[in-house]
Amino acid sequence: MNFEKETHDNYTIIRTKVDKLDTANAPELKSELVYLNKQGVNNLIIDLSESRYCDSSGLSAILVANRLCKGADGAFVLTGLQDPVMKLITISQLHTVLNIASNAEEAVGMLNGSTDV
User: Fold this and answer.
1) What is the CATH number of domain 3-107+109-113?
2) Helix (H) or strand (E) holding 43
3) Which pairing describes strands 43-47 and 53-54: parallel, antiparallel, or unpaired?
4) Which run of H or E residues covers position 41?
5) Per residue in 51-65, is it b (16+ CB within 10 Å) or e — as a string?
6) Structure confidence at residue 6 (pLDDT)
7) What are the CB-based long-range contacts (under 8 Å, 24+) for 91-95?
8) Domain coordinates in residue numbering, the chain
9) pLDDT in single tens digits along all 117 residues of the chain
10) Phi-psi region of 67 (alpha: psi -120 to 50; beta: other; left: phi over 0)
């Protein structure tokens, strides 16, 4: 599996275990996101610390996570962005749409501090 899932009482963290979040593995992430949503997970953190590259398929998976969480009255936080991934998100102007934390602890704090992140 290209992702590691850690479930907590009120949120789930998905950590990528791939160097590149791209067409080779983004569909697996999307499937996991839909599955989690169907299981009632509405607060989600995706940690991309181990991914130094992301293409449009990866961005699509991230946007699916954001949409599913918001649709379930939950919150989504993206964390662990390496410079190339952050540049792509900024160029795509998604930094204005997504909740981005500098590390997992900050992401958890964002979720715990407010259900309307």
Assistant:
1) 3.30.750.24
2) strand 43-47
3) unpaired
4) none
5) beebeebbbebbbbb
6) 96
7) 92/59, 94/59, 94/62, 94/63
8) 3-107+109-113
9) 799 999 999 999 999 999 999 999 999 999 999 999 999 999 999 999 999 999 999 999 999 999 999 999 999 999 999 999 999 999 999 999 999 999 999 999 999 875 444
10) alpha
- Please state, in angstroms and as integers, the Cα–Cα distance from residue 62 to each residue in 9, 54, 82, following that order: 22, 10, 15
